[in-house]
Structures are given as C-alpha cells and as structure tokens.
C-alpha cells in the first residue's frame, strides 16, 4: 500500500514528505495507523547530525495510533487496538529484560543502529529502494510497520494526542525521577534544561514529593512553564551561574539530585557540581556522540557522589505507561498543559523550526 512519510535524505536537510510503498506486516509485526506523533529534540539531533541514524530514514519515535493489521503469530494486539509504540525494542527474555531493564536489551540497540526491522529488511520503499525505520517506530508516517513487541496497549477512550506524548518525553522524564533517581519525598532537585523532556523531570519530581525543585534553563518562557509544572525556584543560566545559584538556594549544601536534560558536557558538569555529599547526578541528554565529561575524583570518593545516566526513563513501559495514564486521570500528571502546539503532518518542518526557536514545550503533528 501507499503511505505518506516524512523522510530525512541527508543530514542538514529538511524532512521531505513523500508517498512511499509500505509492505504489510510480516511474522510478529503490526501495521499501525498513526493518530499523532510527537516533535522531540532527538529527531532534530539526527537531522543535524548529532545522533547517528542510517539514511534515508522515516523519522519519528514518539506517537500513538490504532492497529490496522497484524502479521502472522501476533497475539498481544488485534486490529482496532489503541497503542503506543516504544522506541526501544526489548526481547523480554535476556538478562536485562529479566531484571526489569528492557531499555538495555540488545535488540533495541540493533534496530536503532541498523534502521532495519528484526529480519534485517525494511517495510518502507521508494522507487524500489529501501527506506530505513527510525528506532523501530517511524511515527512520521500515516502508517508504519513495527514489531508487535514494541507496542503497549492503552484504553480505547484515551485520546491519541495525549498518548503520543507519553511514549518518549513523559516516560523519559518522569521515569528518570521514579526509576533512576528514586527521588525521596522532601528532597531537593535541580533540573538543568527544562524543554520537552526536562519539564517532565520537573513534574515527576513534584509528583514524587520533592521539597525543592530548582529549574535551570536559558529561556524565560521555559522557566515560566517549569513553575507551572512544579518548580519552586528558577534560574536563568544566561543571567546567573547555575552552580552558585543552586548552592545559594540550598544554604550552600547543594541538591540531593541534579538532572541534566540537554546533552552537553558543560551542563553535565554543572549537574555534578550542584550536588550535596552523597548526591546523585542523572544524565538524560546525549549528544554529540564523541563527547566526554570529567569530574573531580576527590568529591566522587570523599563525598560519595554518584554520576549516572538514564535511558528511556529506566522504565518498564508495559508497567509505567498505564501508571502514567492513571496519574493523568487522577489529575497529577499534566498532559494538557504540556501540549503547546499542534501542526498538520504537512507542516512538520514548521513544527521543528518552532522547537529549534524554543517556542514550543511539546508539540505534535496529526494525520
Ligand atoms: N543551560 C540550560 N538550559 C539549556 C542550555 C544551557 N546551557 N542549553 C539549552 N538549554 C535548554 C533549552 O532552552 C531547552 O529548553 C532545553 O534545554 C532542551 O529542550 P528541548 O525541548 O529542545 O529538547 P527535548 O526536551 O525534546 O530533548 C532533550 C533531550 C536531552 C532528551 C535530547 O536532546 C537528547 O539528548 N536526546 C538523546 C537522548 C535520547 O535518546 N533520549 C531519548 C529519546 S528523546
Ligand atoms: Zn524523544
């Protein structure tokens, strides 16, 4: 069949919406009709060359849709089911999956690096040539084919535009708080970078009952949003040095947890330098790929600080996504306020320009 898909042909270029051929799902695969797809900075990192992906590729790793067709052997979903696709595939049986850490499963990395589905081929074709999948999701397409194991079923009455936000930005941010840091009630938290993912670290910390939530960004509008999502203090890093300001706000002590949600060595170091003794810095941002960060061994050892990372909210999506839906329905997780922009699929490049200019918190394209 034919489907319209947004393709990145070359680094540095805009997305090209083309009508491509989409093969039906093979063994263990599912075709979904996308309802909405999220505009996340990680796709932009691929467009600018900060993150690697085999090109040409149908981008998009955040979305929600309805199952249109299932391939042979699929038992976990059926046509008509509403689903969120996961951008980290997991096998369910390896050491990491068994330990409740599916984002560390090798299958997810394989699909991400090769741009191919598990049998090594693609379902997207243009003029007979293969077009790669992105992270096994490719949500910037009216229809996409992906492994059945990449899907989490959600209630039919849950709106797809809100659901689309959950599959990356929300679970990555809130999960980093709940699963990686395990933020304790009353503790102090700094969040460096409060964009689409960082704002979900802020709201995760608020839900976890943090006593002090210090938001750091370089844009005034992002800091205003952070207040609405639970930040008790804000620091504009363009005007004030973040580490000194965070120490001043904690009586010189530093924070229990500092999250870096940008992906820069300098801000990762700021997160580490903002910690109290036995504090934990959690890095969520990644880019560019060759960058390294260094920290003083003295504080690492004598102050027993922790520097760690969190990928995909260190989550168990089959457990955490339904939990996030419950938190939204209980009025605790803000999704309506998170969704600041809606664009028709045809205007996807405008959605990315708005993200680049810092205008949107989280936006979606609808099909
Ligand atoms: N100091 C403080 N804030 C800053 C600075 C700085 N020096 N520089 C930029 N910022 C702010 C921006 O103003 C913006 O508000 C925020 O940082 C970044 O937010 P967004 O909305 O542009 O980006 P997100 O939230 O969509 O994505 C952020 C990630 C860190 C997740 C992303 O960039 C990334 O690193 N992705 C790769 C890691 C990964 O795969 N993550 C999972 C998939 S998303
Ligand atoms: Zn993302």
Overview of this protein structure:
It contains eleven helices and 18 strands. It has helices spanning 41-48, 95-98, 106-114, 160-181, 198-208, 220-228, 242-249, 265-273, 297-302, 317-329, 348-356, and strands at 2-8, 16-22, 29-39, 57-58, 63-70, 82-85, 124-126, 129-133, 143-147, 151-154, 188-192, 212-217, 233-236, 255-260, 275-283, 306-309, 339-344, 362-366. 53% of the residues are buried. A hairpin with a 7-residue loop joins strand 1 and strand 2. The longest helix has 22 residues, at 160-181. The chain is globular and about 65 Å long. Bound molecules: dephospho coenzyme A and zinc ion (ZN). Dephospho coenzyme A (COD) binds next to helix 1, helix 4 and strand 12.
Layout of strands and helices, then pairs:
Elements: E1 2-8, E2 16-22, E3 29-39, H1 41-48, E4 57-58, E5 63-70, E6 82-85, H2 95-98, H3 106-114, E7 124-126, E8 129-133, E9 143-147, E10 151-154, H4 160-181, E11 188-192, H5 198-208, E12 212-217, H6 220-228, E13 233-236, H7 242-249, E14 255-260, H8 265-273, E15 275-283, H9 297-302, E16 306-309, H10 317-329, E17 339-344, H11 348-356, E18 362-366
Parallel strand pairs: 4-8, 11-12, 11-14, 12-13, 14-15, 15-16, 17-18
Antiparallel strand pairs: 1-2, 1-4, 2-7, 3-5, 3-9, 3-18, 5-6, 6-10, 7-8
Helix pairs in contact: 4-5, 4-10
The structure holds dephospho coenzyme A and zinc ion.
Dephospho coenzyme A (COD) binds at residues 40-42, 45, 168, 172, 192-198, 216-219, 222, 237, 261-263, 267, 284-287, 355, 358.
């Amino acid at each position: 069949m034919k489907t319209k898909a947004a393709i990145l042909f070359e680094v540095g270029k805009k997305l090209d919406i083309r009508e491509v051929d989409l093969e039906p799902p093979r063994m263990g695969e599912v075709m979904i009709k996308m309802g909405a797809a999220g505009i996340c900075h990680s796709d932009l990192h691929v467009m600018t060359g900060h993150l690697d992906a085999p090109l040409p590729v149908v981008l998009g790793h955040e979305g929600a849709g309805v199952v249109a067709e299932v391939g042979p052997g699929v038992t976990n979903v059926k046509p008509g089911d509403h689903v969120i696709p996961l951008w980290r595939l997991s096998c369910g049986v390896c050491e990491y999956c068994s330990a409740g850490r599916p984002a560390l499963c090798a299958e997810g990395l394989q699909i991400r690096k090769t741009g191919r589905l598990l049998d090594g081929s693609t379902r997207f074709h243009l003029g007979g040539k293969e077009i790669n999948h992105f992270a096994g999701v490719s949500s910037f397409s009216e229809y996409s084919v992906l492994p059945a194991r990449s899907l989490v079923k959600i209630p039919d009455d849950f709106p797809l535009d809100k659901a689309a936000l959950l599959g990356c930005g929300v679970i990555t941010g809130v999960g980093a708080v709940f699963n990686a840091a395990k933020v304790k009630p009353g503790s102090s938290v700094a969040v460096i970078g409060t964009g689409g993912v960082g704002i979900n670290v802020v709201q995760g910390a608020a839900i976890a009952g943090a006593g002090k939530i210090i938001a750091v960004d370089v844009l005034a509008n992002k800091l205003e949003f952070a207040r609405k999502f639970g930040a008790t203090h804000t620091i504009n890093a363009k005007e004030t040095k973040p580490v000194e300001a965070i120490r001043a706000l904690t009586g010189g002590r530093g924070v229990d947890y500092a999250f870096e949600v940008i992906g820069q060595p300098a801000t990762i170091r700021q997160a580490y330098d903002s910690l109290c003794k036995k504090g934990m810095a959690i890095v969520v941002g990644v880019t560019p790929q060759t960058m390294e960060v260094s920290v003083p061994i003295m504080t690492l050892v004598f102050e027993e600080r922790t520097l760690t990372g969190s990928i995909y909210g260190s989550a168990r999506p089959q457990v955490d996504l339904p939990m996030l839906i419950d938190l939204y329905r209980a009025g605790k997780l803000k999704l309506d306020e998170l969704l600041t922009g809606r664009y028709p699929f045809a205007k996807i490049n405008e959605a990315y320009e708005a993200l680049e200019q810092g205008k949107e918190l989280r936006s979606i394209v609808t099909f």
